[in-house]
Amino acid sequence: MYNSHTLQTRGYILLLSLIFLGIFFVIASAYVSSITSSLKNARYAVQSTAALSLAEAGIDKAAYELNQNPSYTGETDTPLGGGTFTVTTATIDSGTKRITAVGYIPNRLNPIVKKTVVANVGLGDATVAFHYGIQSGEGGFTLSNSSKIIGNVFSGGAVIGSGGNYIYGDVVSSGPSGLVYGIHATSSVYAHTIGSAGVATVVDKNAYYTTKTNTTVSGTSYPGSVDQDAVPLPISDAQISDWENQAEAGGLATCSSGTYQISSGSVTIGPLKIPCNFVVSGSAVVTVAGHIWVTGNITIQNSSLIKMSPSLGATNVAIIADNPADQLTGSLVSVRNTASFQNSGTSGSYVFLISQNKSAENGGSVTAIDLGNSASALVAYAAHGLIPLANSVSLKEATAYKITLQNTASVTYDTGLPSAVFESGPGGSWVFDRGSYVIVP
Predict the structure, then answer these.
(1) Which pTM was predicted?
(2) Of 85, 178, 209, 269, which has the highest C-beta tally within 10 A?
(3) Domain check: are 264 and 411 in the same one?
């Protein structure tokens, strides 16, 4: 028989056991809850990071699409990895668009996590650095006399020199018909065929080819190399059309006898559409504050000066000759005498002198952009036409369907077309205004 003291003692032990068991369950429950909460928080943190990465991918995709088509307005529910992203674009002013990208995990309709990123980007202006000094389409290049190129060359056609023409950079002639000969390249050359029996070719670095003839290679030769892919010219017709629309929105010039002429004094114009020929002559100083669209021919001559407004900063400005009714014999640009061009005062800003003449592309010989002596620092662009460069003309950049260089012509560049094969020269891609980059809470 148990006495009362023994029963009382056992009662205390049982009570204490229950108390300690309760404490254990409370602690265990709290521990499990803590682990569950930590796992949930960790999972959310991973998903938040993934959603942010999706939003940033959307920003990058938008920059790419705008490079291809300035009319790009965005996209919805693009799948990537374990989620999706949606992009919208909005025009801020004539030179800036705002990109908003939202990343969703797992999707927009049933989001567990979403992150939003907003950034501003320029429309093909100074925020876009186009890795070439000079680029042609299928019309290719010819160099003669002592003409030279300081920078990389990318051609959709042949690159042909007369034996002593220097190209201070890499040379690419794309596609199965790619051909390079008669030049001295200080870097590497990429073409289906390098060299010709009739004229020597010199390559200071490497040569990538299928066929090589009469060529001295100081670096390494790579026979059987894959042909380089063709690359679109850096400013699309859609981009030019967008600039024309911006110019037209700025107002319409009044012509006199088929010409809008400035021959003296200091004048500020742009954005502006000129529905006739445009002539700048004498000692006139024309300050350009926005894009200009000329539906005739452009002539800039004598000692006149075209300069960009300081208000443009690093934003490039286009002066375009484009008569939609006459792109075979018209839409021409001529720069003569000692006419010169000046940037906005901000490094990296240029005047884009553009012709939409299409003679060369259609087998003709009409000169789209005719540049006289000492044309100075500008970007000459004729995606469908011919640009002959001669004498002491010196440019920052030249791009055309077909380009010829003669006499002492020289092209020096400091902007560039992105290309993985180029080993030297400035790089190029869309560059965002990082001051505008915002992660929305």
Answers:
(1) 0.67
(2) 85
(3) yes
Q: Which residues contact 391 (CB under 8 A, 6 or more apart)?
A: 372, 373, 406, 407, 408, 409
User: pLDDT per position in the chain (441 positions), as tens?
Assistant: 555 556 566 666 766 666 766 676 667 666 556 555 556 666 777 888 888 889 988 988 888 777 666 678 899 999 998 899 999 998 876 457 889 999 999 999 988 899 999 988 764 443 334 445 678 999 999 999 888 888 788 999 999 999 879 998 899 999 999 999 999 999 999 999 999 998 999 999 999 999 999 999 999 999 999 999 887 787 889 889 999 999 999 999 999 999 999 999 999 999 999 999 999 999 999 999 999 999 999 999 999 999 999 998 877 899 999 999 999 999 999 998 888 888 888 876 788 999 999 999 999 999 999 987 655 557 889 999 999 988 766 667 788 999 998 887 777 665 443 343 444 444 334 456 655 667 776
Has residue 154 been placed in a domain? no
Q: Are residues 258 and 111 in the same domain?
A: no
**Domain total in the chain:** 2
Helices (H), 138-268: 237-249
Using the CB atoms, write b or e for 69-89: b if 16+ within 10 Å.
ebebebbeebeeeebbbbbbb
Could you tell me if residue 304 is inside a domain? yes
Taking every pair of Cα atoms in the chain, the longest distance, rounded to a whole number of angstroms, is 133
- Let me know if residue 63 belongs to a domain: yes
Range of the domain at 386: 237-425
Task: Name residue 87's beta-bridge partners.
Answer: 75, 101
Whether 160 is covered by a domain: the verdict is no
